[in-house]
Amino acid sequence: MKKFVFFLIIIFISSSCKEEIMLHQIDDQGVIIATPYLWKTSLHEKEPASNGFLKFPIMYNDNVLIPTTNGKNSHKISLIDSKDGKFLWRWDDIFAEYSLYNDVNYCHQYRNLLTSQKGSRSFCINMDTGTTHWKYRRDRSFHIRITSFEQYYITYGPITNDSEKYHKDFTSFIGDIETGIISEFITPNFAYEDPEYWRGVQFVNQNPEKDNLFLISYFENLEDYIIRPFFGLYDNDLKEWVWDRVLITPPKPSNVIDWPPIIKNDKIYAVVDNCIVCHNLNNGKQLWKKDFTNNFLFSGFIIEDGMLFANNEDIFMVCLDIETGREIWRVRTAGTGSRLSYLNGIIYYVGGSVPRLFAIEANTGKILWRLNPALLGEEGYGAGFRANAVYVLPAKDNQPAKVIALSNLYAYCFEAYQ
Asked: For the domain 38-92+297-418, what is the CATH code?
């Protein structure tokens, strides 16, 4: 039987004029499973409803963007004040037939503008006012995956809306966030013209140190659903490839790059199905590859303080040395989780298979938090944190460092682990 340590903390809620008793609880492994929150805000204006989803944390002026509803699946995305959880604005200027639009998987934020893409619908929101800067219903669908540099964003899709050529002539498109106008950009060197053998650009990213270079990752679908993924480096000034068609991993099923590669110190890091790889940016040569028992589809990976952290679907989080790929530690966590967030030597994320808010010490892999909303008084509607983005904010202006995570019912704000 588990033993818990309880600390009673009295919090006065002025709006209800009553006391709420919060318990600071530690399990028999020394992991904190409940701690008082600084504030909580309901995600629903009326009764609880199926909510939207943000894959990556979106913040503006130290405030956070969260998915909300007004009941009955009418979705909004809302900016809330990180100091007290109060709403600053709510946005729902979606096309009427797409009430469930507000799943933001990828976006580009430039100054006060935020844009995202879903199918044929493109939106840009003014983050100061919560109003629509522009929106388009385009004549064809484009991929939700967008990448960015400065005021420009990149997606990919068909060159034409001609149904006979729709799946054959794919390329990347570059758009200006100020206007939303897009134009054709870079096309990979596919070996096949038959649409059964390739799928198009998966990801385009600017090399942050050399403005004229773009890393291209793409894949070709061979017979029997066998996929081979490639890297290429394109010089956009010279309009030529620096190097191209570097095979990342041997052909096999499900062999795609699910998360944007990270470029750091002239090295490319990427997860490809159940592998993590490192390539030399200057020539494409693979420096190391680490194989795992499962993929990194949901949580992906981050690089901080010379270490790579990734949460595998085998429900273990791992820490690798970025120079060699050597495993430093691994710890049992949860699968189907959120994107990883990092602050002051601590990794925060929400598990999906175990719907708890985890805090993990980056140097050691020690689990510090495994917070459970049910221990904070939350009941019903699948009481548990959900694998939405986790927001971390450093200490500033006499405000403590904070972690904000979402359950099905509320946005909770906690003081970051110290």
From this structure: 2.40.10.480
